[in-house]
Structures are given as C-alpha cells and as structure tokens.
Known about the structure:
The chain crosses the membrane at residues 20-44, 65-84, 104-129, 317-339, 366-385. Residues 141-175 form the PDZ domain. It is found in: Membrane. By secondary structure, this protein is α+β, with helices and mostly antiparallel strands. The protein is 54% helix and 18% strand. The strands form four sheets. A four-stranded antiparallel sheet has the order 6-5-7-8. It has a three-stranded antiparallel sheet with strand order 3-10-11. Strand 1 (51-68) and strand 2 form a beta hairpin. The two termini are 32 Å apart. The relative contact order is 0.11.
Amino acid sequence: MENDGSLVSVTEIRKDELILIIAQFILAFGVMVFLHELGHFLAGKLFKVEIEEFGIGLPPRMIKLFTWGGTLFSLNWLPFGAFVKPKGEFENDASSGGFKSAKPWQQLLIFVSGPLMNLLTAFVIYIVCFLQIGYPDQTTVLIDRVEPSSPAESAGLRIGDQITKIGGQKVDAFSVVTDYVDRNLDKEITIEVNRNGVLMELSLTPDSSHAEDRGPMGIVITYPMEDYTIGEGIIIAASETMTMIRQYITGIGQLITGKVQMGIESIVGPVGMFSFYQDAAKMDEQIEVEQEQRKAERMEEGTTSQRRTASEAASPWLNRLSFFAIISIALGVTNLFPIPALDGGRILFLIPELIFRKKLPEKFEYYFNSIGMICLLILMAVIMFKDIFMLSNG
C-alpha cells in the first residue's frame, strides 16, 4: 500500500502543538516570576532605593537592553525567572539610596510586594475567568444535547430548547424534570419548550430500558449562564482567591503536622508542572472541539439560542488560566514562608529590628541564608533529577 504521507503529517502537527505548549508554559511561568520581581522593583522605587539591575531571566547575562532611571535592564540566558538587584542589599551599608538606608518597615514592604504581586496576578486571572464564564441561572433549564435515536429526537426536541413545563408543571429547576420523568417511565408525557421565543408542546415516552450512559428521554440538560457585572466579578474573584490561599495554607499545614503523608516522589519540578499544564491544555482543546461540534449541530438543526450554556461559555483558555492562577498563589504564599533565601526568610530577620529596634548580627544572617540556600539548591537538584528520570521513563 502506498504511503500518502498522512501519518507523517499528523506526527508533525503533534510536534508543533507540543512545541507551542512548551513555549506557552515557559513564557507564562517567566511572566509570573517577572511580575514577582516587578513588585519588588516598584516598591523599591517608591521608597527611593536605587535598583542597580532588573534582569529578565537568570544569569549568565546575554545582553544589556537599556538603562532607565539609573537601572540597567538586562536579558539573561536562563528563561525561568527574573531578578532585581537593589544597591547594597547584601552589604552593611546604610549610605543614601542603598537598600539598608530604607527604614525597616519600608524594607518589609519591599520584601512583601513580590508575593503580593503574585496574589494580585491570581486575583486578576480569576476576574477574567468569572467575567468570561458568568454564573448559572438555576431557574431556567435548557437542553444541552439530544442523543440520536432517542425518544427526545423522535419527539422533535432540539439543542437550545428551554423546557418551560413538563406534564403541566412549571419547570424552574433540574429536579422538576428528573423527578417527573422518573415517576412516568414508559408513559407518554408532554413537554412545553420555548424555541427562539415560540412555545411548543411535544409528546414523548421516557424509556425505562435506556442505556447506562443516557437518560430515559435521551437528553442532557443544563443551566444557561448569566453575565456578572464588573463589581460582582471582582467580589467573586476576591472570594475565590482567598479560598485558594486558605486551601494552600491548610494543605501545607496538614503536611507539616503529618496529617497528609507526602514524600519526595510527590514533589514536582518544572517537568512535573509542565505535565499538569499539558493536561490543562488538552482539556482546553476538548472544550474548543465540543464548542465547534455544538455550533455544527445548531447549524444542522437550524436552531439558535439567546442563552449561553456552561459548555458554550467556557473559554478555550479556561483551564490554563486557572492553572497559572493556582501557581501564582503557590508562588506568592510559598515566598512568604520563613525559609532562608526566600522573601519570608528575609522578613524573619527584620522582625527583631521592627519590634526591638535591634538588628541581628550580620554574620548570623549571612550563615543562615547561606546554609538555607545550599539546602534549597540540593532540594532543587533532587527534584530536577526526579523530573528528568520521570521524563526519560515516559
């Protein structure tokens, strides 16, 4: 049999899609770290701390981009991350314009601003998601799918029909439909639907011997989605952000107290995170496919709907945006933990100065951060090794 090249074409498309997803992941993750450092940068500028360099990516340096406001902006070779280098941050120098010349509470705000920028990023992502999707109107029931060769198809029900009455009962919830059908299996019932503003009454007989993957009528019902106002979107996004923060902190607390057992095999690095991102991208792709199918079905049936269903309201980027909202929250909260080399570790050394007006010995801080950094680097190496091993073994 002659090879027409179709298999090669499919393989190439898959490779192209994988490369695109990898590029999306690296870019989006880099943006999150960039925003974290931007928070530090803006707070430093606010308190008149000289920022010597703002690096996009991590060293070694690739090129110097430009100098603005006394700050060198550089592009570095490692694409994950960014960094801000305030003047005299690691020196015992309180000269004007240096980091140590800032008051302790100002230094505290500079450290906190990075994590807060990550939490703000998650908040903005949730606003976009909720304004895009809206909320379900649970008093209105729409037909989301009609199975082929089903009682519903034979009766003439179509996708987008609003069920207004069933057996003479007003329909204002899912349960009205499902309870009535369950009580009248194998009996003829009447259904009133609103199709494009026209009320129609149809008859059908729910089948008690239906297949397990379909209901007695052969339909899938859903609620239409209503739009949030901007104010409502902000409130619900703030609530969701706080909920995710609480859940993350609770999970860490359960891990520390031993309520949840978690070994190194459960900790993921960049490769593991990319695997989750790839799953999110696949779910988004499925949303897009289903939306195209739904559009084709509506065109084939000649029906339109003034109301969006949940599947139609979902954005093809919804799962990827939600993924990065969660990662932003994890990045922001984790950086506040009192761990050496993280913002929380730096804040820990400011507490005595804030409360007692007395600094801890410089050597103590130096050794504390050095030992902590070594431990973090070892942990990162182990995680990277595990990631590479996982990748090589599929």
